[in-house]
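I am still getting used to backbone structure tokens and would like to learn alongside you. Label the sequence line and the structure token line clearly, so we can match residues to local backbone shapes. Would you write everything just below, so we can both look at the same thing?
***
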Amino acid sequence: MNNILETCQQYVDRRLSEGWEIVSRYGCTVVLSPPDGAFLRPVDLRNDVETLRPNAAGDETSIDAQIPFTAYHWDKVDEAVADDEDTYVQNNLTTIWERDLYHLPPSSGSGTINFIKVYFRCYQTGTGAKAKPSIKSNSTVTDGIELFPSVWPNWTTHSQQWNTNPANGGKPWGSDWSVIDNLQIGVSLKGAIGGTPACTQVYVEIDYVGVSAPTVTTQAVDDILPTTATGNGNMTDNGGENASKRGVCWNTTGNPTVADSKSEETDSFGVGAFTRPMTGLTPGQHYYVRAYAYNSAGYGYGGEVEFDTAAGWTGKISGVTNPAKIMGIPVANIAKVKGVA
């Protein structure tokens, strides 16, 4: 399987089933160690993680040898469970760095990316050989920290984490997942006199805060007339993704949703206050109103507010052609004017 989308709790459960161990806990964080204990992996249980494995050759295939010798390099390092001696790539001839890069399947995650973490499982015959992970983001190739692989027959899994995107001036990865869809990962190997490095597994984890429904508050309705009013809302948190819809909904029974009457606009909306016209109201009616916003995680509703529309005009005043206001008095208060029937 070339990609796995999990909550971090599911991720921890899977890793434990693969022989990893929990070495410590603090707050919402669990610290894991792989079976060979080569590194520690802190996991924030409030986040999500997507694992991507190679599915095609990338822009470089420079490592000179593969076992078996047929097909492609990427399919020697794509397995979910490391097969070690069965398939691997190897710098068999040179004492210079050789690099392979691999394409990845399309991502399925959404939200704000915290970091990416590349895993690579290596060994060497003899001593002195080196290995390091590599990534290509946009047109920028970046190598990780080089290390000396363990000596045959002991394969060891290593990892390196990138908290920022090297192709974006070292800025955070952000929430644009097209960057992940264009990402390539790989490994670089350097042989030595008496040392031959090999790699049997490469994959990447994307740790991110998943998208949640927007957080919205509802403000008091204003501009109240017999059949119209203005609803007010404020999106205080977009949930990690801009809203594609926002508006107000209303009914006469309480707890309104978008299945009831609504006034909506569509675009790409970040946090901030908004207003929507409410039309087609009944004069003298009691209404319940909620503001809302929508993103790919669903609808977020604000609290409920109530209001009464103004009573409709039924009386007559000689010479008055616009009874909406009498001497500056709103129509809702006309019935209080002495002598008006």
Summary: The domain at 215-308 is CATH 2.60.40.10 (Immunoglobulin-like).
